[in-house]
Amino acid sequence: MSENCNQNCASCSENCADRQESQQSFLEKPHEMSNVKKVIGIISGKGGVGKSMVTSLVAVGMNRRGHATAVLDADITGPSIPKAFNIKKKADVTEMGVLPVKSATGIDVISINLLLEDETDPVVWRGPLIGGTVKQFWTEVIWKDVDYMFIDMPPGTGDVALTVFQSIPVDGIIIVTSPQELVSMIVLKAVKMAEMMNIPIIGLVENMSYFKCEECDKEYKIFGESHIEQIADKYNIKNVIKLPIDPKVAAAMDKGMIELVDDKLIENLDTIFKKMEE
Question: What would the DSSP string read from start to end of 132-199?
Answer without folding.
Answer: HHHHHHHHTB---SEEEEEEEPPSSSSHHHHHHHHHS---EEEEEE-S-HHHHHHHHHHHHHHHHTT-
